[in-house]
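Example 5.3 — Mitochondrial import receptor subunit TOM5 homolog
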Amino acid sequence: MVNNVVSIEKMKALWHSEVHDEQKWAVNMKLLRALGMFAGGVVLMRSYGDLMGV
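Solution (predicted structure tokens):
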């Protein structure tokens, strides 16, 4: 049970360090933007990919 509390505290510390550090936040936002663009491209091609076929 004690290990569970320690891991929660570690997760809180990780979240705090990732969100409140400006350099890490900028990198995380770039990664999120890239992931969003990739997911959007996959959805677009799944929906309208047959229209691109020649």
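Remark. Helices lie at 2-20, 22-48.
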